[in-house]
Amino acid sequence: MTLSNKITIKHIAIIMDGNGRWAKEQGFKRTKGHEAGAESIRDITTYCAGHDTIETATFYAFSTENWKRPKLEVEFLMKLLDTYLKKELATYQKHQIRFQAIGDMSAFSKSLQKRIQKTEALTKDNTNLIQVLALNYGGRAEITMAVNSLIQSGKKEVSEDDISHALQTSYQDIDILIRTSGEERISNFLLWQISYAEFYFTPTLWPDFTAKELDTILHNFTQRHRRFGGL
Ligand code: IPE
Ligand code: IPE
Ligand code: MG
To answer: Structure pTM?
Structure first.
């Protein structure tokens, strides 16, 4: 087995699930779970920034389907995002983390859109890690948008490479996809980018997910043999 068949972890993606259940279990409102979940994002991002090979960590924060939730919860999540970005700027700069957002931000308030753009601009030269937050994101919407932009550019036929490059962030395959909370589904996350990702489902609820558990997962994955269709 050559080393190239093994995992070099460059891009990890996380479906952060279980905030609501975490809160309910402790007798809190669901919103408390989202607040606790935001703390986990910071811990995991900082861990990734300190990791040798990880270049990008993509977190699913709000799906195109999450608008179906009660208005008050949606509003809380929008406000939390704004507060998080404001507060985390110091963390981004301290740990040399570049922030990027993917998804359709046009549905957000003007002030939140500004906060997102400002945070992207202020952190654009940071080189330790790219933290991508998927916001009002859907994998199908992203692929559809990519194909439409290719059509608009005049293409009559598109290749896989064309689509990869037309996706929202500079394209990078995902090495490991983690979902917390025991659910074992994709929920419309990075459909194109997960083609050869290794999956890991953990029962841990997102607010309880620690850098230590991530470390164990990464160690486990480096032992896997990725065949990419070969032998
Ligand atoms: C994930 O936690 C956070 C978001 C989807 C915003 P949930 O809010 O889905 O928590 P559960 O799944 O209801 O426990
Ligand atoms: C997926 O979690 C979306 C995010 C983590 C942002 P959900 O809790 O919304 O997914 P389902 O409804 O269980 O599929
Ligand atoms: Mg959920």
So the answer is: 0.95
